[in-house]
Structures are given as structure tokens and as C-alpha cells.
Design brief:
This protein is an alpha/beta fold. It contains 9 helices and 6 strands; from the N terminus they run ββββαααβαβααααα.
Length: 235
């Protein structure tokens, strides 16, 4: 069973390619879907100002970050912490893009070269709840995850919230599976063999008026397609 690291970052802006930097990294470790307490939380000196809109989101001022370490000085430690784990990230492309840029500047390979997998909870949520709001805040509200102490977006706090959201989002995948090789039922389950030969299943035929109505529909379909319906051609 592999480690899972729920990860979030805060940045000076929206574009790593245009020089924005990671200023906070928050990681929460899960093993067997349980929090282990082996977490990672670091602030970085980005050596640049945050954009005004970004500052409103995370509240991490230049003065606060001035004495924090630069990403490159801790990059190897971060790589070793993440190595071999499945990363769980909300809107993964954003965080992965920023971390890859930081790793590149530190002379290190990209994330996917040393982690086992990257799982995007935003993509997962869009599949489960299509057409609905699927931001982290919206998912917290949907699953009843308490975020009352969240004044600003913080990487460590958001990673903790996302871990709770992820467990709720994947709860339906906890089905008990039977090991067919051992012919033993999974613990907590009971397998009952039923002899179906003892049952006589009735065959219910369509009534005459139902057959007529069905034929009318087929004729209309055939007409609207100019006689190109496959069921007529294959009849």
C-alpha cells in the first residue's frame, strides 16, 4: 500500500513561466486512508513581491517571508519526502507547474520522475458532480467539512481540508472485495450460494396493441431517416 501526500501551495501569482514563485508548501500524509502526522509545512522567500490579488488570497507579506529559506536550499529534502508517494492535489496542473519550475531552477527533475502518481481531486469532483461548483470551498460545504477557522488560504490548512474532502469523495470506493483465488469471503462479508435452477422464470409476451404501437414507432423512425435505419436493413 503506497503513501499518499495531500499537497497544496501558495504562490506570488498565477504564472510560474512569467516568474511567479512558490511561497508556501503544505503536505499531509495519508497511509491506508488515515492521517499519519508525518506532515510537511514550509514558507519560502520568493525574492519578489506577491501580486496584489494573490496577497489578498494568502495574506503572506514580503516582510513575513523575508527571513524564510529559499526553495532551492530545501529542494532535495522536499524530493525525498515526496518520493514514491501518490500526490493528491486540487487543480493539480497549477501546483505541479509551479513545483516543476522550482525544481528546474534547483537543478532537479520534475515531480512525475520521482512520485508514483498525481491525482487531481478537481477532475474527480467534476466527474462526480458535473455542472456544479467544485472548488475546495464548495466541496467542503458539500461534505460538511469544517473550514470556520480559514480566514486566508494557507497551504497546510488547505491540504488538511483537502484530505478530508478526498476521503469523502472516494468513500464509495471502499467496497469489500472477495479474493476469488482463496475462495474465502472477505472479512465481514457472507457469501450465500443460490441454486437458480429451482426457479421457473415467467416469460411475458407483448400484447397485440403493444406490438402495433412499437411497429408504428419503428416506421416513423425509418421514415425520418429516409429508410437508412439499420434495423430495417438487417431485418
Amino acid at each position: 500500500m503506497s503513501r499518499q501526500i495531500v499537497l497544496d501551495t501558495e504562490t506570488t501569482g498565477l504564472s510560474a513561466e512569467n516568474g511567479d514563485r512558490v511561497i508556501e508548501l503544505g503536505c499531509v500524509e495519508l497511509f491506508a486512508r488515515k492521517l499519519t502526522g508525518n506532515d510537511l509545512h514550509i514558507y519560502f522567500n520568493p525574492e519578489r513581491e506577491s501580486h496584489e490579488d494573490a496577497l489578498k488570497v494568502h495574506g503572506l507579506t514580503t516582510d513575513f517571508l523575508r527571513d524564510k529559506p529559499k526553495f532551492a536550499t530545501l529542494a532535495n529534502d522536499i524530493v525525498e519526502y515526496l518520493r514514491g508517494a501518490e500526490l493528491i492535489i486540487h487543480n493539480a496542473a497549477f501546483d505541479v507547474g509551479f513545483l516543476n519550475k522550482e525544481l528546474e531552477m534547483a537543478g532537479l527533475p520534475p515531480l512525475r520522475s520521482f512520485v508514483s502518481e498525481v491525482t487531481d481531486t478537481l477532475a474527480m469532483a467534476k466527474l462526480v458532480y458535473p455542472g456544479k461548483r467544485n472548488s475546495l470551498d464548495a466541496l467542503c460545504d458539500r461534505f460538511g467539512v469544517d473550514r470556520s477557522n480559514r480566514t486566508f488560504h494557507g497551504a497546510k490548512l488547505d491540504a488538511q481540508l483537502l484530505a478530508d474532502v478526498y476521503i469523502n469523495l472516494t468513500r464509495g470506493q471502499d467496497a469489500l472485495l472477495i479474493d476469488v483465488a482463496s475462495n474465502e469471503p472477505a472479512q465481514g462479508t457472507t457469501v450465500v450460494a443460490v441454486d437458480l435452477s429451482q426457479f421457473e422464470l415467467p416469460v411475458i409476451l407483448a400484447a397485440e396493441h403493444e406490438l402495433t404501437a412499437h411497429e408504428t414507432v419503428l416506421t416513423q423512425l425509418d421514415k425520418s431517416s429516409n429508410g437508412k435505419t439499420l434495423f430495417r436493413q438487417n431485418a
